Amino acid sequence: MQYINTLFSKQRDFYKSHQTRNIKGRLILLKKxxxxxxxxxxxxxxxxKKDFKKSAFEGYLSEVGxxxxxxxxxxxxxxxxxxxxxxxxxxxTFPSKDYIYKEPYGNVLVIAPWNYPFLLALEPxxxxxxxxxxxxxxxxxxxxxxxxxxxxxxxxxxxxxVATTVxxxxxxxxxxxxxxxxxxxxxxxxxxxxxVAEAAAKHLTPTTLELGGKSPCIxxxxxxxxxxxxRLVWGKFFNGGQTCIAGDYVLVKAPRKEALIQALSKEIxxxxxxxxxxxxxxxxxxxxxxxxxxxxxxxxQTVVFGGDFDESDNYLxxxxxxxxxxxxxxxxxxxxxPILPILSYSTEEDIRKTIAxxxxxxxxxxxxxxxxxxxxxxxTINFGGGVVNDLLVQFxxxxxPFGGIGTSGMGSYHGKFGFDTFSHHKAVMIRSTxxxxxxxxxxxxxxxxxLKKFLKYFS
Length: 459
Ligand code: NAD
Fold this sequence. Notes:
By secondary structure, this protein is α/β, with parallel strands linked by helices. It folds into two domains: 2-211 and 408-425, Aldehyde Dehydrogenase, Chain A, domain 1; 216-403, Aldehyde Dehydrogenase, Chain A, domain 2. The protein is built from 16 helices and 18 strands. It has helices at 2-16, 23-39, 41-52, 56-82, 119-130, 144-157, 170-177, 190-202, 225-237, 257-272, 288-297, 329-332, 348-356, 371-380, 415-421, 448-458, and strands at residues 85-87, 96-104, 107-111, 134-138, 163-165, 183-187, 207-210, 216-219, 249-253, 302-305, 309-310, 315-316, 319-322, 339-345, 363-367, 385-388, 409-410, 423-431. The protein has a seven-stranded mixed beta sheet. Helix 12 links the parallel strand 13 and strand 14. Helix 3 (41-52) runs antiparallel to helix 6 (144-157). The protein is globular, with a radius of gyration of 25 Å. Nicotinamide-adenine-dinucleotide binds next to helix 7 and helix 8.
């Protein structure tokens, strides 16, 4: 793919010209991007609707709105984030002035998924540009309408040598991954994350991998079931359940299981009516393959609510499954759709055992009023990020890092964490010349004892 080589060389040459180091220039671009997102708001929301019937409300809340607030924060803070930081010098190296420079990596590749196709494509681009890099963005090939609007906006705002999109599927992504990028930011499945990591390793390219997994949701005997049902139904069925940080399954204290299922069923009907297919607010599955994958997950399961689907419309109803076997695909794979399995537990040990069946989760949710129980779990279970008494909302605070652990990802972003992700922290020490005792220079004879004393004193 010759055009990828040409594009890469163009961005490489531009980076070498040092023009991206100009903070004012970065701010001009970010402000231009903000104006362009605002003027395309209707078109973006329409594209999301065309791609998987995402409502304008969810589209604004979880895509356009978050992009705009990330832009606002970055525009406001960029100068302070990018400033070289003075740190205290060490007594051992006195006298010196010590700094951390925030240096761009260079040429960045961003590969985005389809589930929040606008947000998860643009947010890393904003951060990479803010930190002074050039960017090639490959949006998902499954959400073509959103990919087209992303291309339109990026083309309008950025010269091609600064940022551009390359649309396409696996073949294009594979060709892009062959280039020696200075940083790769990937959001997608764990399976493809491994392919990206392998390609990056060939050039020792650093990566951030924002991946998926099975995120548990614990409901104990003290939780207010009405509130649990309201927040759980919202967090699970938002975006049609196609959210990396959605609760994948529920673990509820055994005696409360029936009451929880009742409360959830009632809540689903209240929010999406008795026929969610006719609700304007309930999105579709992104394509037929994913719909069939989800339908297959329901095979041999006890469906206690929902379960109906329509292949002609990529529709799957909000669905509740009672006590699935841990060895079935439903409990082995990330669900990534509107199916909510409910499992019961008796002891804290049961919770730990169930969670240990999958890899380290991206998110972890606990509904409880028992502080000791909550603290025990928070302090002993490895997960990317989590919330007590709610779902998804951790994404909304840019002062919290967002990222996974183990197979749910590596690295993080949002707010300053995003700027830091795309910046190399370069250590620089400026030594004074007026003081230069001869002690450190050879011959060393007779100096070792004194050295030991000196090091002990200053450590
Ligand atoms: P995916 O891994 O199938 O695709 C993601 C991107 O990778 C797409 O742009 C795709 O074209 C590209 N790709 C696919 N195959 C490739 C290959 N062989 N080589 C190189 N690139 C390839 O993921 P998806 O279906 O778009 O998204 C769903 C997954 O993403 C879920 O697992 C979800 O949990 C995860 N996800 C994670 C986050 C997060 O922030 N951690 C956010 C959203 C989605």
